[in-house]
Amino acid sequence: MAQFGFDNDIHSILKLDMPITNAPMARWQRKASSSMSTSCANTSALSPGKSGNRSLSLSKTPSKTPGKNGKTQCTPSKAGGDRFIPTRNNKQMDVASFLLSKENEPMDTNPSAATSENQKAWSVTLNGYDIEEAKILHLGGKPLNAPEGYQNNLKVLYSQIPTPVSTKKNRYIPSVPDRILDAPELRNDFYLNLLDWSSRNLLAVALHSNLYLWDATQGDIVLLMKMEQVEDYICSVSWIKEGNFLALGTSDCKVQLWDVENQKRLRSMSGHTARVGSLSWNNHILSSGSRSGHIHHHDVRVADHHIFTLSGHSQEVCGLEWSPDGRYLASGGNDNLVYVWPGVQEGSGQGKINVIIGGTSDRHIRIWNVTSGSCISALDTQSQVSSLKFAPNYKELVSGHGYAHDNVVIWKYPSLTKVAELNGHEGRVLNITMSPDCSTIATVAGDETVRLWKSFELDPVKKKAKERMVKSTSSSIHQSIR
């Protein structure tokens, strides 16, 4: 029997189909085992904050992924790749696990307000944030930088970074005037309106008894008229909306109408008992306000021009302005009152109207809703408000100031947020007028200068769109003035 057992052992060894126990590891097995260990070590090195602790490894991206055969395979790593494995701590994983398990719990349909507030307070105290607003998965930290010289061959399909074409450009407002014109013998009178810009790009300036026209296109200066009496002076100027007709209010209680193209006076209209310091056009209706406090409506188409008188102010009318639709007339007087009058042929219906008022002593700009009678907004400018003008290109308001700043300020409408300050005048700003394209304002001040500020230029795209929208219209007054 012993001989039989020995023969079986020899036969098994020679057969070589059974595993050899206690034998050294084969070379191919040692090579495979070494390659697996090296690859896993490299993957661990790419994971920031990698630790050998079992509890911490749960919060990291696992270094091994399941293979097709159900076995664990090591995630390959390529040197110089752009793969980013985010860092997540235990607290984030605990919150995510809690939120996932909470989805299976029945919801409380009638939670009390006190209970909800208490739960929120406890959550903020314990966690530092409201658990109800927490995310199931939150990735923090910054990705690692790619190695030097690495090139990514992938194409960008979408990016939130705006292209240079769609990037919004900052608006540039020059701090110095584009041009300065001398205005000798200008009357430094707060109640007069001595400057106006026509639709034909002509700037009218009244210098005591003389009326000058400056062609903003050609740069030419023309003396249009001069008062006959030395003691008389021009108190107000106003261009008709379209055309070359200019109205003048004078100290001898008259309103003159001039054809500028032919340099000819068409008519002189009387009726006031004091100087005429304010004028405003509404198609063929010319409104004039005087020191007596009265406002006259003139129909310049007919010989009997005076059609109506508005009485309300107890002191000089120093400001007149028709609304853009011609339905209402706003008047301001030295009695610290502003009146809003209906149009000549308007009924009692009113829409939403905003009136902008500037104060002298109280230094405020106030915006009123005339329909409701409420003050929408008010701003203390810390300076005497001597003139106001609306700039439509950017929906802004321009104010001229006297003591103590003697400057021009641009405000956003209707928030009255300051946009820019224009400094340069050495005396109080008396009047402001706007160029036909609304890109430039002209200001005249007690320092006897007229300054032009290009503060509202549109970009070329918007400018062309605006020019297409504007239709050239001619007024019927061209054929009907007598």
Write structural notes for this entry:
The chain has 482 residues and is of the alpha+beta class. 17% of the residues lie in helices and 32% in strands. It is built from seven helices and 28 strands. The protein has helices spanning 2-15, 27-46, 54-57, 90-102, 113-127, 460-469, 477-480; strands at 64-66, 72-74, 179-182, 195-197, 202-207, 210-215, 221-226, 234-239, 245-250, 255-259, 264-269, 276-282, 285-290, 294-299, 306-311, 317-322, 328-333, 338-342, 354-358, 364-369, 374-380, 385-391, 396-401, 408-412, 417-422, 429-434, 441-445, 449-453. A four-stranded antiparallel sheet has the order 3-28-27-26, with no helix packed on it. Strands 4-5-6-7 form a four-stranded antiparallel sheet, with no helix packed on it. 23% of the residues are buried. Residues 27-87 are annotated as: Disordered.
Secondary structural class: alpha+beta
* Portion in beta strands: 25-35%
Q: Give a count of the beta strands, DSSP E runs of length 2 or more.
A: 28
Biggest beta-sheet profile: 4 strands, antiparallel
Strand order of the largest sheet: 3-28-27-26
How would you summarize the topology of this molecule?
Layout: H1 2-15, H2 27-46, H3 54-57, E1 64-66, E2 72-74, H4 90-102, H5 113-127, E3 179-182, E4 195-197, E5 202-207, E6 210-215, E7 221-226, E8 234-239, E9 245-250, E10 255-259, E11 264-269, E12 276-282, E13 285-290, E14 294-299, E15 306-311, E16 317-322, E17 328-333, E18 338-342, E19 354-358, E20 364-369, E21 374-380, E22 385-391, E23 396-401, E24 408-412, E25 417-422, E26 429-434, E27 441-445, E28 449-453, H6 460-469, H7 477-480
